[in-house]
């Protein structure tokens, strides 16, 4: 530290020549490199040019006051971090000291002062500046490490989603064929299906928690009928729960419950809660209740998920929604999971303007999670006639552009199984050529193509074919930035890999 002090530069600003000379000598004898200025404007110029470590700044100057000099130093990004010490023989009352310190000064000495007091204050400011620099450096390093981590997670997810997409599509084909007659084969199909969906969810959760901790999650809101959405979700959730040997009791309202929300994120909330209940229940029942509470402007949708599982100890209950918190912390980790699902639930519920709470009677007493979400007022509820929830699938000419051979073949097989006429390309250049040659009605385009990427393919097709061709982006990147880039490039829809056959079927039916 002594070596750092000897190398430190101090700018001494005072219009009194004798006083300035005296302070210069005191500082130089203590080993500091000293610069000097007689006016406020000269001090500002020297501060920006030389970037001193400390400025000893007299308040009373001939052009602008020391208060004004300090304010301008703080307003300039180049000089904002320089330590400033006011000195004055005139402005010595407490209110003037307060004015100087509130205005941005780090210290305030009134004259006369002892040389030792001046040097001790300069040393104190240097220590403070050194600590701030170290903290700033550490912060910058942490930000850079966090950025690299996010890049790594995004790349990891992209690499994992490509093989997952091929596997999930292949599963979809197997599901649509005649069920296997052999019991063992049927069991193997079920294992592959469950574990693939589980792995896909883990990948999504990892990326979501990274985005949430950085405030990067965005909701794509629209009017959502919770009753209808949950009815559709039950087709997926019920087999998962019953596969564990559990009963699933569901009580849904007979009327729609409309709210303004992100349908995908609401599905994520419900799925996490039901899966969590099933995971921590060895035998018994998972009960799901969805109902309305309150009326008019105070109306809320209430989702209650109750289980007869292992329960939550009282000491762990307050932290259940914290990141990586888990009720089961035993060494065997038989329940699995990353301890981030409930954190996602709480964050997403709050983003929808709602609340979530957990209660439990303790170990062995089961758990109950309650989500409350604000409903739309009656004047904003969509006035729609009853719609047929079954898809309106029809045969189409489809172009599939995908460089991963397994994903390409499995997707082609699935589309042809649905009755579509499919042309395939393994890179962007070939994809554009086929689009111009065969005039497809719809193109499924992978974003991460070699050479000409998916964004370039979309822009080229929009320029040469126009708007009549429907474009669907397939990407291993599911962040909001990727979604916006896809829309900007000309895609109509952005789907994140692995794409579930049901989601793909729904998109094809709606376009």
From TrEMBL:
Catalytic reaction equation(s): ATP + protein L-histidine = ADP + protein N-phospho-L-histidine
Top EC class of this enzyme: transferase
Listed transmembrane segments: none
Domain Response regulatory stretches: 9-126, 397-511
Positions of the Histidine kinase domain: 155-377
SMART domains, alphabetized: HATPase_c, HisKA, REC
Keyword Metal-binding: no
Top-rank taxon, per record: Bacteria
GO molecular function, one term: phosphorelay sensor kinase activity
Keywords carried by this UniProt record: Kinase, Phosphoprotein, Transferase, Two-component regulatory system
EC numbers: 2.7.13.3
Positions carrying 4-aspartylphosphate: 58, 446
InterPro entries: CheY-like_superfamily, HATPase_C_sf, HATPase_dom, His_kinase_dom, HisK_dim/P_dom, HisK_dim/P_sf, Sig_transdc_His_kin-like_C, Sig_transdc_resp-reg_receiver
PANTHER family recorded: HYBRID SIGNAL TRANSDUCTION HISTIDINE KINASE C (PTHR43547:SF2), TWO-COMPONENT HISTIDINE KINASE (PTHR43547)
Name of protein: histidine kinase
Highest classification ranks of the organism: Bacteria, Pseudomonadati, Myxococcota, Myxococcia, Myxococcales
